[in-house]
Each structure stands twice: as structure tokens, then as C-alpha cells.
Amino acid sequence: MTRKIRLAALVGTAIFTALAPGCSQTPFHDDSYEAEIPVALEAADLGISDASASATLDGFSETLVVGGRIDSSVVIEKQVPPQLIQRVISVALDGRDVDTSYFGLALSFGQYEFVDTDLAFTALGANPRSDGSITMEEAERIAREDLD
Known about the structure:
The protein is an alpha+beta fold. Helix content is 38%, strand content 22%. The model is unreliable at 17-27 (pLDDT under 50).
């Protein structure tokens, strides 16, 4: 019986050791973007205040989530113009190499209401996932586009 317990403990330890590094909430990259992106967004005169940037972990994939409170005058039926979304992405990624798989926006307006970015992302040629994020490759392409 003790042999089975030891074997089970050994197998459990091996599985934990193999999976633990991938389950860490600590990003494996420079996190200076957490301070730089909010400052850049608030300075860009886009009508965004209380800006934030952080990486979230879902399984083994990280998502850069950029957020803030947006001036409600630009929001129509929980939507904002794709050009504004493009500018937000452009400012957020400008000169930064953020090593995440996905990019998401969390823009609030009013009290407890969030902008639905799916239509804007689609209009910009991206394919939003079920959580509303897009791939970092799509975000980088959008950031480089000149829509003006």
C-alpha cells in the first residue's frame, strides 16, 4: 500500500512540476507598459481618463488589456468609431514590444457600462474572439494603418 502512495505522490509531484511554470500569474516579459500605456493614452487627447494596462492569463495565453474611462459623448449605442479604436491601439502599442498573444480593450463610459468593441474590431479587419480580444498580430497591423 505504501508503495502505491509513494508512486502516486511521485506522479503528482512530477505533474505539478511540469505544469507549475505555465500556470504562473507572473508575466515573463518587461511590464513597464503597465505605467507607460496609461500615461500615453491620457496624453494623446483621445478623451480617455483613468487609463490602465495589464496582462491577464488564460491557460497558457496572455492578453494585454488596455482600459480606461472614455468620454461618453463619443459613444453611440455602446459603440465608438473604428477610427478611435485604431488610435487607441496605435497609441497603446507605439514603440512598445509587449509579448502577449492577444490584445483587448476595456473602455467604460457612464456608470458600469462598457463599449462594445467587436464591431469596430471587425470593421478594422480583425476577428474578435468570444472574450472580445483580438490577436496581437491583428492589433499591431491595426496600429500601423493610416485611417485618416
